[in-house]
């Protein structure tokens, strides 16, 4: 299976981490939204990332891809229990929409624009997002994260993959969480990032950003 996308994207990372956790073989084909790669365009005519090519089957959108893989390989990271399943999808959606809107202002302006586009980012917008938009989201997350285990209990799920991805990009963008203010988030994040799938990916990303 080919995954098309930029590895620093939280959406692309979500699918990659999912595949590593499930031991699903894949090849990452790095592309950006302006890519003219014909295989990427065939897999994602609307240029949505990530996209996959799995044999002759193509699909775009990280959540759609994860649901497809759960169907193909069997449920594993989205619970079968109706209530837990609903919560897993909820956390995934919140990470991809509510958090991503604020994250985009920070990560794009502090990292993507200057490092990958060769132009200055809007640092005022990034600073404003960190100061005003982010704290209410962190307060909500702190109220949701359990004292131990993972977001939905003892089992690691899509919810953890999606929400942790947001915090990785925030860290890349220079946001440092205060452990005294957000003790549950920092403890949970430490547990998630200690997993082999995350540890290896984050190490690769830090190396990429250090160049």
UniProtKB/TrEMBL annotation:
A Pfam entry, by short name: GST_N_3
Segments forming domain GST N-terminal: 1-77
Residue ranges of domain GST C-terminal in the record: 81-211
InterPro entries cross-referenced by the UniProt entry: Glutathione-S-Trfase_C-like, Glutathione-S-Trfase_C_sf, Glutathione_S-Trfase, Glutathione_S-Trfase_N, GST_C, GST_Theta, Thioredoxin-like_sf
Molecular function as annotated in GO: transferase activity
Matching Gene3D superfamilies: 1.20.1050.10, Glutaredoxin
Cellular component annotations (GO), alphabetically ordered: cytoplasm
Keywords: Cytoplasm, Transferase
Top-level taxon: Bacteria
Keyword Transferase: yes
Location relative to the cell: Cytoplasm
SUPFAM superfamilies attached to this UniProt entry: GST C-terminal domain-like (SSF47616), Thioredoxin-like (SSF52833)
Main location: cytoplasm
PANTHER family reported for this sequence: GH16740P-RELATED (PTHR43917:SF8), PTHR43917
Protein name: Glutathione S-transferase
Species in which this protein is naturally found: Sphingorhabdus lutea
